[in-house]
Amino acid sequence: MFEYAPAPESRAVVDIAPSYGLFIDGEFAPAASSGGVFKTVNPATEEVLSEVSTAGPEDVDRAVAAARRAFGSWSALPGAERAKYLFRIARIIQERSRELAVLESLDNGKPIRESRDVDLPLVAAHFFYYAGWADKLRYAGFGDDPRPLGVAAQVIPWNFPLLMLAWKIAPALATGNTVVLKPAETTPLSALFFADVCRQADLPPGVVNIVTGAGDTGRTLVEHPGVDKVAFTGSTEVGRQIARSVAGTRKRLTLELGGKAANIVFDDAPIDQAVEGIVNGIFFNQGHVCCAGSRLLVQESVAEELLDSLKRRMATLRVGDPLDKNTDIGAINSAEQLERIRTLSDIGAEEGAERWSPPCTLPAQGYWFAPTIFTGVTQAHRIAREEIFGPVLSVLTFRTPAEAIEKANNTPYGLSAGIWSDKGSQVLAVADKLRAGVVWANTFNKFDPTSPFGGYKESGYGREGGRHGLEAYLA
Ligand code: NAD
Fold it and tell me: Which residues contact 323 (CB under 8 A, 6 or more apart)?
């Protein structure tokens, strides 16, 4: 096998300031309260990228008040006028996509190939898509005169920072709501750059406000009496707390939480294609994907052949510098997440599953985890039930379609699933019985703004994306 020469993307295209304030009412300003600042680091090198303000209760008050003030005139604009702003934002994102992709890879650790070819194109596509809806809301199927809810409090995780922001902000603005968004504490930078995009697009002050900070800031925001809608993407545990705090108020709530998706391979599936889909399903974005295909269910008769082929393919994955265009697997987003992946993987081995990783040298500095599979896994193993949120695949086998369905559904989650089979009838029959919000057939991790996304059971409720995604922001 030949070696790839390094192909690093230049980081000179992005200019990160040494510190950032909060973005409230169209202006960047330091946090008023004594919350202080926190550092955001490049997880591939542990280098400090910038210092970011922690928003306290006073700052959240100011942000919610700014969004409330802006709501009157923003919601009164004709849809076609709101659309112009969204189209403008989409085009600016396209123009600045290289800069934003490099920034996202620096702050998150994801390979530039993914931030450049997946995240950024999807971010722009979301704004284009919802811009198209802004003047057609009464044809969306939610009544003749759908009304915005008011001020939306939005809290997002670190795995797709800018894409999760787009999923939340684009439909909220298209429907006439105003927004206070809190990005995750380990990846605040792309949201702060997005604030600059809003200024460039001449978005009226207060329509989008960005407050940074950790869980406390998130809690203050979602519990604020001045917000009308809460949209949260993150862990099931925090989702539960938020559901409790919102219960009994007039706030509307959508929750996009965790997952433990089954990727089911039948004996008639094209093995090479299935292997590509398995690799994409669990190693895309280091496995930091809520809908990752983290449980492989393979029909027993082809298990050996498939696993041999999967291991050969895994041995070709390149782990390393996220800014290198040849990199397949980048850095784990934080030391805490790395610890969680290590702990659950060690438990997998202790509980008797067989662990395998291809030989690969991990960089000395930064947070890294080699792509890993566990075979001989049963439903009783914790690695078959709990979300690892890392590049770790649990392999189970089955004999009949009925057994595959039962195992696939035997999870507290229900976000996504994959089916690999040559027979359309089999794909449809199985898909019909899976309790998962998204089911991919002979593919995995395909996203499109026109397609709704969301879960069953502990994966949350409400849908984002597509026409369905408008409903969460309309009265
Ligand atoms: P997390 O729940 O710890 O944090 C998510 C966000 O919530 C962060 O911004 C955090 O600061 C904030 N937060 C923490 N405590 C809070 C509180 N008490 N009140 C309000 N906000 C609070 O999750 P994470 O570790 O950042 O993200 C990983 C999780 O997100 C995984 O479980 C993953 O499956 C899930 N996720 C789901 C989707 C989806 O669409 N279903 C997408 C991406 C990630």
Answer: 8, 9, 11, 44, 102, 105, 106, 112
Task: Check if 155 has its Cβ closer than 6 Å to any atom of ligand 1.
Answer: yes
Output the CA 161–ligand 1 centroid distance in Å: 11
**Burial of residue 237, with CB atoms counted within 10 A of its CB: 0-12 exposed, 13-18 middle, 19 or more buried:** exposed
pLDDT tops 80 at residue 361: yes
Q: Which ligand 1 atom is the nearest neighbour of the CA of 183?
A: 9
User: Which residue in the list 256, 387, 458, 464 is annotated as catalytic?
Assistant: 256
Can you tell me the distance from the alpha carbon of 409 to that of 230, in angstroms, rounded to the nearest whole number? 29
- 106 φ/ψ angles, rounded to the nearest 5 degrees: -65, -45
For the Cβ of 158 lying below 6 angstroms from any atom of ligand 1, the answer is yes
Grade residue 3 by pLDDT with cuts at 50, 70 and 90: confident
Ligand 1 in reach of 386 Cβ (< 6 A): no
Ligand 1 pocket test target in 40, 155, 288, 453 with most atoms within 8 Å of CB = 155
The structure tokens listed for 193 are: 């750059």
With a cut of 70, say whether residue 335 has pLDDT above it. Answer: yes
Cα separation, 281 vs 393, whole angstroms = 9
Closest CA to 290 of 159, 385, 391, 169: 159
> Does 3 participate in catalysis according to the annotation?
no
Asked whether 437 lines ligand 1 (CB < 6 A), one says: no
Cα 471 to ligand 1 centroid, rounded to whole Å? 22
Element (H, E) at 210: strand 208-210
Asked if 418 and 440 count as a contact pair (C-beta separation under 8 A), the reply is yes
- Closest ligand 1 atom, residue 185 Cα: 11
pTM, rounded to two decimals: 0.97
Span 25-60, pLDDT tens digits: 999 999 987 679 999 999 999 999 999 999 999 999
**Residue 69 and residue 55: Cα distance in Å, rounded?**
20
Cα 190 to the center of its chain, rounded Å:
14
Q: Which of 9, 104, 198, 290 is an active site residue?
A: 290
Using the mean position of ligand 1's atoms as its centre, give its distance from the Cα of residue 256 in Å.
Answer: 9
Token pair 């593919």 is found at 443
Q: What is the tens place of the pLDDT at every residue in 378-423?
A: 999 999 999 999 999 999 999 999 999 999 999 999 999 999 999 9
Token pair listed for 334:
């934080």
Selection from 159, 198, 125, 236 nearest residue 466 by Cα: 125
Q: Can 290 be counted among the known catalytic residues?
A: yes
Q: Tens of pLDDT along 276-329?
A: 999 999 999 999 999 999 999 999 999 999 999 999 999 999 999 999 999 999
The amino acid sitting at 459 is S
Ligand 1 and 233: CB distance under 6 A: yes
